[in-house]
Amino acid sequence: MADIIKLLPDHVANQIAAGEVVQRPASVVKELLENAIDAGASKVKLIVKEGGKTLIQVVDDGIGMSETDARLSFERHATSKISTAEDLFNLNTKGFRGEALASIAAIAHVDLQTKPEQAEIGTHLKIEGSKVVSQEVAVTPKGTSISVKNLFFNIPARRNFLKSNQVELRHITDEFQRVALVHPSVAFQFYNNGSELFNLPNESFRQRVVHIFGNRMNERLVPVQEDTDVVKVSGFICKPEFAKKSRGEQFFFANGRFIKSPYLHHAVVAAFEGLIKSDTHPGYFINIEVAPASIDINIHPTKTEVKFDDENTLYAILRSAIKHGLGQFNVVPTLDFDHDGNLDTPYTYREKAAILPKVTVDSRFNPFETVVNKKQGVPYKKQDVTGWENLYTEVDDKNDSFSSVHFESELDAPEIFESEEETIESSQTTFQLQRKYIVTTIKSGMLFIDQNRAHRRILYERFLENEQVKEGISQQLLFPLELQFSTNEVEILKKLSKELSLLGFAVDFVNNEQVTITGIPNIMTESSIGTVLDDLLKGYEQEQTGHLVLPVLMAKTLCRSLSVKNGQLLQSDAQIALVNDLFGCKESKLDPFKKVIYITMGVEAIENKFM
Ligand code: ADP
Ligand code: MG
After folding, report:
1. What burial letters (b/e) apply to 185-216, b meaning 16+ CB within 10 Å?
2. pTM for this structure?
3. Average pLDDT value over all residues in the chain
């Protein structure tokens, strides 16, 4: 094979938006995967270790490089993909800057083995911190294998800045999915620390989506298709009833690359208007194809924003394509490939009415002296509780990026009980206001308790307590539940398995897309399992900063899923129990998301109103 890499002339290089290419392991993964695609690979293998911090390897069966090209590929502005400034406006490749390999080699140990198809023998090159440390001939198959080891070995500050392995792996997985989704005809394998996360054959776009996000996605997809002179739109949207509280799966691809576009996102949301609740988000996987000359992707090396020539038209076409797709789906049932009806069963549980968590009353209980251990019903002194309160201080002091709930400015909740003897009156009456607040009296006035926040606090402490005493109280399911997940989700559940069992879950891992639940925490009802596990997975995935300890993360997610919601009617015994349980909590003023649980209205304030 002739040498094909050239150094870009300065005037061309200068028209390329510059910026830092490598920010984290995921950036390396993206660049290497895209190079493999540009090299025309039909099979690509990604291998990472420890969140990519110690190893990122990409092996492809693409065109490979000659010996000279192998050397040149690590030079800045060395590329085979463009040569003139005009080429910048007619890009058909992912890469064009000729910068990625140079940037990566500057901050890591790189090992390259490559061979073009026709060549007898290949090239093996080792580079550390931009310096070539060895170059040899090598017997190697057609294609290219690049290993990137010890990322940022020469910039300790950057290395320390990296997040936990789990968080970096999450970013890598995101990049992997973005590239794999838009190239379904390329087979991909992805290994992390020796275990296979994905094995994707050459397949259709629909199958690729289902393969990555799990079988249950199949029944949710509705095709979208529109061909015009300006743009070709294709792909899938998720049926309105599967819109999620969290953003979930939303993908735009323009000319084969993942992009972010708030404007086009708006077009999708507009098409769903009236079909989904305003606080939920539709899922979509949409490919947009436009003439290469009408899209500018040269904005920033790592930004996923692009500029389209005629955005308004695109917006209109996209919106109508989606409306059309939604309309069709109402009449024509969607075609399912190898659809296994059995697998849907667990999700029908979601349609069942929510069952009010059982709250029991303990009449002997005086919340202001002791805490009652719910399990044995034995009161014990507050001071005796040690250990798990550390978990809160941990949470309360830190910014909580996990929660999508926005914190109100931290109100300094006043002490409601100024003196010891000031308690909730013994002949206690409570009532529910707007199915949202529990109202009761204290000696000095009125107390308004937000039922949802109060219950979150109670459940949160109970979960942490279970976790601390290392015995989640479990109720066995009469009929074990089989649940389908994506490979990635099963992987996460495996990581959480210890905590899950401490909380009272009994989980059997059947294969890499299926688990069987044989027991659940006794606080929970069977009908909520699907939702709770989904919330848990979402919470875990969103926990990008990795500073929440697992039990806290799980307790937070579970208390949010399982708490009594606003709008739910509570009988008076449940109201009283809620009040008592709340004031039996270690912290009763703020819920786990730092929202104020109750407010008081003093007699004086009431009197003032009558002045
Ligand atoms: P760019 O992709 O922008 O051209 P890179 O630094 O990523 O810049 O790569 C430089 C050059 O090295 C590419 O233009 C290509 O010719 C060659 N190259 C990189 N990776 C591969 C690969 N996996 N297979 C074949 N050639 C490659
Ligand atoms: Mg590249």
Report:
1. ebbbbbbbeeeebbebeeeebbbbbbbbbbbb
2. 0.61
3. 81
